[in-house]
Each structure stands twice: as structure tokens, then as C-alpha cells.
Design goal:
Layout lengths: L1 E2 L10 E7 L3 E7 L12 E11 L10 E11 L4 E7 L6 E8 L7 E8 L3 E10 L4 E11 L2 E2 L1
Antiparallel strand pairs: 1-2, 2-3, 4-5, 5-8, 6-7, 6-9, 9-10, 10-11
């Protein structure tokens, strides 16, 4: 079978298909093809370099606040998502995504609240239009203290 695509110059491109029951279907294409490729660096990696408990007044003591200091390499992210899960990282308890603006160096602090003491799996994802990178950590929150 021979067919000519309607959107291309018929003299330049001919596509031929052969159906052979013993060897399967083969497609042969003749002509010139071109396309443009854009290479982007993307976000190459994310690191949680510090987790700090945020000191609160007694009236705020119902939630434990933790600041996560995060760095990244490569292009600068435009969004950050934090997934808080059980200690096995299987059951998600909350997901929070926020847009961010980073101008020079990829160093940011992410503050998250924990309603009750316990051990949690934290996944922090930084992303932009073309890439994303993830860092994970286990955190133990114990009524105002975190490790």
C-alpha cells in the first residue's frame, strides 16, 4: 500500500506499508524530515538542609510549626508542593502547593503545620514548566519539638 500525506509535498514524501504475515508490518518512509529541539536545564536536584521548630506562644500550641530550609540546583522553580504522609510514605495526610518566586539563588524556607505529635514522611517537590525534583525526609513532631 502506498499513500501520500495531504499536508506534505507529495513529490518529497512517500510512505509505504508492507503487510507480511510471517514478519509483521513494516513502514518505510522516504524523503526529508526536520524538527526543532529546545534543550532546557531543568531542576536538577532538591535538598532539605535544615528542619527547625518554630517557637510559638501558648495560645498557638495546638499546632506544631516546622520550617524546612530547602536548596536546589539547576533552573529556578516556580512552584513548591509538600506532601505529608504516614511514616511509611504510603498514606497521604495533606498536600499543600504554593507558587514561589526565586530571583537568584535557590534557597527557600517552607513552613508547614502539624496538628498532632507523631512521625511523618515529608515529600517536598519543586517544579517549573519543564521539570520537577523531589526530596524526602522523616520527621518526628513531639508537641513543640521536631527532630
Amino acid at each position: 500500500t502506498t499513500r501520500e500525506p495531504s499536508n506534505l509535498d507529495s513529490s518529497a514524501t512517500i510512505e509505504s506499508m508492507e503487510d507480511n504475515p510471517d514478519e509483521g508490518c513494516h513502514i518505510y518512509r522516504y524523503g526529508s524530515y526536520s524538527d526543532g529541539i529546545s534543550v532546557v536545564e531543568g531542576i536538577l536536584g532538591v535538598n532539605i538542609i535544615q528542619m527547625m521548630n518554630v517557637q510559638m506562644t501558648e495560645s498557638q500550641a495546638e499546632n506544631s510549626l516546622v520550617d524546612f530550609v530547602v536548596t536546589c540546583q539547576g533552573s529556578l522553580p516556580t512552584d513548591v508542593c509538600t506532601v505529608v504522609s504516614d511514616p511509611t510514605c504510603q498514606v497521604s495526610k495533606s498536600v499543600v502547593c504554593d507558587p514561589i518566586t526565586i530571583r537568584d539563588e535557590c534557597l527557600l524556607t517552607i513552613r508547614r503545620a502539624f496538628e498532632e505529635p507523631g512521625t511523618y514522611c515529608i515529600n517536598i517537590t519543586l517544579r517549573d514548566d519543564t521539570s520537577q525534583a523531589l526530596a524526602s525526609a522523616l520527621i518526628s513532631v513531639n508537641g513543640g519539638e521536631s527532630t
